[in-house]
Amino acid sequence: MATATKHPPADRVAQDSSNGSVRAEIFDQGYNLRGSDPEYILKLAAYVDSKMRAVAQHTQTVDTARVAVLAAINIADEYHLSKGNIDPTRDVKQRARHLSHALDEVLDQ
Known about the structure:
The protein is α+β, with helices and mostly antiparallel strands. 55% of the residues lie in helices and 15% in strands. The protein has a three-stranded antiparallel beta sheet, covered by helices on one side. A hairpin with a 4-residue loop joins strand 1 (13-16) and strand 2 (21-26). Helix 1 (38-58) packs across helix 2.
């Protein structure tokens, strides 16, 4: 799985300290981004760029919008797993419950 670079290459970043904006390149497109912490914004941009590049590398699509959506789905999945909102063992638990009930039925007969 791709990871964000700690510091984007210098040719991909321009910082304007007067208004806290930074210019970052994500998947070969330039964006002017603003936030209270320009370094953090650059890390986020680098992370999104790395996700989009990983998706593009593993799919046949050349449609940038599709690559962006697939990258967003991957990022959302990571977010929800890290927050515990999605239980990766849920299916295993459901199957175990089902098998347990089936075993109980057989044993009761």
